[in-house]
Batch of 4 targets.
Target 1
Amino acid sequence: MKKYILSCGSTVDLTLEHLNERKIDYIPFTYFIDEKEYKDDFGNTISYKDFYQKIRKGAITKTSQINEAQFCEH
């Protein structure tokens, strides 16, 4: 059993490849585009191209951080 876990939120200014190479876990935050929820998972759920295209077209956007239960589960 590990004594500690090195982890970060998905808003970290690093690439997924950088995190994977160093075995750093991340907790995906969530965001909403026109009331639909997405995980901030480095462009896997929705491509960056589609994400920015929706914003350019005037989509309503909101962000959210993880809650305490999600943090404890991680």
Target 2
Amino acid sequence: MKNRMKIVALFLLLIPKIGFAEIKIGYVNSNRIMAEFEPVRDIQIELEKEQRKLEIEFNRILENIDSLRQDYERQRLLMSDERRQNREQEIMNLERTAQEFQLKKFGPEGDITRMQNKKLQPVLEKVQSAIDIIAKERGFDYILDAMTGSILYALPQYDLTEDVLKELKKNNTSSNN
């Protein structure tokens, strides 16, 4: 809803600039494109396989920690203070290693995310290229993503960024004097 409000506001800002000329707007369903485009499905399958391998490795680490913890609990009363502290430290170190592994492999900037971004980038470029071709061939001024409300294509003449920057600089210069 918030994104749609931004788009409506954008078009309200554009109306005075472009007059009442006919604007041709189209949209795409990016979720459907990603679901039905074969290269995306292939990448998803490959990523799922890699993720399963890493999950197995992570589960082994967790099982090792659990086993050490159980051994520690069984023998704790028989251990010297020094031995107990060493074992506790060993368990804490393994837990830290597990957390680091999880973050490094599955975190927001982890291996899986980087792999996904690297593999999807060429596919996303193909999708964007197809959108650009359709927009130009059919004379669209804007193409929106129906799922996110973001602009996927716009004619450069509707880009007001430079005008806004000039206005900001002008206002900033006059307020500094």
Target 3
Amino acid sequence: MRVVVVGAGLSGVSSAWYLREAGHDVTVVERREGPGLETSFANGGLVVPSQPDPWNAPGIVAKLVHYLGKEDSPFLLRPSAVPGMVGWGLRFLANSRHEAWKRNTLACAALAQYSLARLRALRAATGVDYPFGASGTMKIFRDQAQVDAQEGFARMIAQFGVPHAVLDRAATLEREPALAQVGDQLAGSVLYPDDEYGDAHAFTRALAALGAARGIAWRYGETVEGIEVEGGRFAALRTDRGRVEADALLLAAAAWTPALARPRGLRIWINPVKGYSASVPLDGWNGAPRMGIMDDGLKIAIAPFAGVLRLAGTAEFAGWSPEMNERRASNVLRTATAVLPDLAGQAERKGATFWTGLRPVSPDGAPFVGATRVPGVFVNAGHGPLGWTFACGSGKLAADLGGGSAPDIDPAPLSPARFN
């Protein structure tokens, strides 16, 4: 069958790859000049099946109220964004109840672990070349009660094959010497040895190139203007360069997906949440970490790859504002120095590059993958902060569902119709 995919980020490129692998004729339409230039460009770099829990854990309401208007806070809700997110927000809050949060966490855990297996299989089969590391991630804590709570969480998701090890302070510092300067502040950590990290943008470009060699057509710099339906089902995609006829359409445009679907009466519950990252060159720094590090208290993620240390954090509910807020961007670097004090000197010597992007967040933390009520129109979007973690799994699932193959995992918790 002929499939047209909208979006050449992690989700779109992965979906296109698996659709082509299944024998379909695939065309990808992307408004930017190349793959992976939006949400996938400079994300946190972590592939973490160990962290599938949605943001809206029980207690999120109190946190959002507490952080309201505080520019340096890890969660920032701007009052100007509230009118545009009421419907989404009510669903977000409804899913912060403990049972809902647990159910959504387990659904995301199943997808995340499946996705890691698909990523590794893809690397083995194709040799797709991008900077990555597979030495795991370490989640550090300053209070023993927090270590214990994380151990309980790790046991909950262990059923999906996510291994973990609880480390005391001494074992934490032995495993990651870069933490020595803050060692006296730490109670311990939980190590997730199967986690990975890598350059999502480089992966997206490399996979797109492999896809082109296998016959995927890439149409860059082309803007979608509409979705044509004939006889009640999808017929063609209309762009500023003409019509693209196909048997099926896959919308994989991250936070822009709802706007594409809405004219056809489709409501995809995705809200843009701005995130920031900073990249500091590792050149000449002997004290850099050798694995991914997450500090839950500071809400900061750290990953070494491609000759840089990638730092990511903060969630800013600011509507569709794409502008870089220099104070919040700089705060990501400043927060990371509380974990790695020597990072401040390295950034001063080598400089830092800042980036911001809009994460496509669903109300329950799980992406939307599958068919819509318009026959022939499918979705793969809403991955929130776990786009890299979910990329290959949701891409394979979308390709199976869109191409008529039996999926490897249960798609029901990810259905685009679950809020309608």
Target 4
Amino acid sequence: MPNKDMETFQDRMEKTIQNLEEEFNTIRVGRANPHILDKITVDYYGTPTPLQQVGNISVPEARMLLIQPWDSSLIKEIEKAIQASDVGINPSNDGKDIRLVFPELTEEKRKEEVKKKGEQAKVAIRNIRRDAMDFFKKERKENAITEDDQKDLEEKLQKMTDEYIKKVDKRIDAKIKEVMSV
């Protein structure tokens, strides 16, 4: 039984790593990356719809994204959605297309962004550890596990947490190298 619980917490930590990778894809590195728009939804006739499903997104220049809505009546909605997001870029339109021009980000800003997202992932992993510890204490209180089992599980959990924190650190280092080579 306790191994099944450990797997649950390990799965949650693994999902945190996957989420970190997705977050890293949204970091602006000076060149336009369509993934920065992945989390933006547009009100499409009353239904929140991912931006990719209402138009074509292309990269005509290194620091520009071009959004060509399939329905030109959506231009105002798309602009509104982009402005409400945390992309930090003001869209401009010519009546049928929307352009997003990315300013050059300083090295320091890019590093800061990577570290911030990495730190959020570490906090999430530590929160999972805390949840697991609380769960094991509750199990002990209810006599579902012995005191020795609890100690063993907590030690395994700490080792697992340390491993995942190291994974996050490795990904942070790799991403910093990537954003510095732009």
